Amino acid sequence: MQFGIFSVGDVTPDPTTGRTPTERERIKAMVAIALKAEEVGLDVFATGEHHNPPFVPSSPTTMLGYIAARTERLILSTATTLITTNDPVKIAEDYAMLQHLADGRVDLMMGRGNTGPVYPWFGQDIRQGINLALENYALLRRLWREDVVDWEGTFRTPLQGFTSTPRPLDGVPPFVWHGSIRSPEIAEQAAFYGDGFFHNNIFWPADHTRRMVELYRERYAHHGHGTPEQAIVGLGGHVFMRRNAQDAVREFRPYFDVAPVYGHGPSLEDFMDQTPLTVGSPQQVIEKTLAFRDYAGDYQRQLFLIDHAGLPLKTVLEQIDLLGEEVVPVLRKEFAVGRPAHVPDAPTHATRLAGTRW
Predict the structure, then answer these.
(1) Which of 196, 185, 184 lies closest to 220, judged by CA?
(2) How far apart are CA 204 and CA 45, in angstroms?
(3) Spans of biased composition, class Low complexity (predicted)?
(4) Which of 40, 103, 143, 227 has its CA 20 to 30 A from that of 325?
């Protein structure tokens, strides 16, 4: 399994001090978080894509290219690449370029995002969201896999004899995850192509996640890519830790209460009871994360959100230390217990270049 962290890049006032970081400080903090992730032995850093306040990561390839130059092993991913409002030609070229610069340490998570106004900002209609996701991704796959593309669709001008440059590194396109928390059409899309399915289950109860993952697995097998157990699944999670659980709850509560994504709603206790959010000791994080396998099966990638809601960088780096030193080593060991031999590892550029189907 791969373990890592993802950031949505929100610029949120610290509710305990009232101070709001500058955009520059937040961008630099995301870089520091990625570097720390590699330092402690995590596998993946992923950034979201947003084009509106209070978020800063509007250009994932710029950020990931900078991080690539300062790391050696870390897999660089997006937590969302907006397949609906980005031009597939630009995605194909931008991420192939990044793939070369990062020596293959790149994959993408396709998604529609959670900001409705982004559609008209980029000249699209939110009512066509699913159709845009389907058509744009179909074109993107061809651009990466065919040297010369003739294409005509509904949402962009036709292409005649077009070659996107640079070509994917070693002729192997970046691996693609399709991210969704609510749309069965996206689970079907991932299954149809034999791509990965990432369910960012930080907002949802286990039963919902189970249904989405089971749908993807069943359709993956239906389309002839392997058994349901061989489908490529990733999950999100959200944690805040202190060695004493009561300290963690007391420290995190003011941040949870005003969080831009889920604040001003259920209580912290209710949210922990109903979703994968874990606020407590490292052992509690280990136990709850291991329980994900009960409803998602043996899966390939676990990403944690740890820098949301105005938490200061010092605190976030402490969280990464706890993940790297106390949590992830145990998760690696325990998730390996009883894992069937036919369940694949998470795809990497090296394994795909060596002949793995993806």
Answers:
(1) 196
(2) 22
(3) 9-20
(4) 103
- b vs e for 164-174, b when ≥16 Cβ sit within 10 Å of the residue's Cβ? beebbbeebbb
Tell me if 107 sits within 8 A of 177, measured CB to CB.
yes
The single-letter code of the amino acid at 50 is: H
- Confirm if 109 and 57 have CB atoms less than 8 A apart: no
Neighbouring C-beta atoms of residue 76, cutoff 10 Å: 27
Give 101's Cβ-side CA count (13 Å radius): 18
Per the CB < 8 A criterion, the answer to whether 135 and 153 are in contact is: yes
Q: CA of 323: how far to CAs of 41, 73, 280, in Å?
A: 9, 17, 13
The predicted-structure confidence for 144-185, as pLDDT tens digits, reads as follows 999 999 999 999 999 999 999 999 999 999 999 998 877 888
Inter-residue contact 327 to 282 (CB < 8 Å): yes
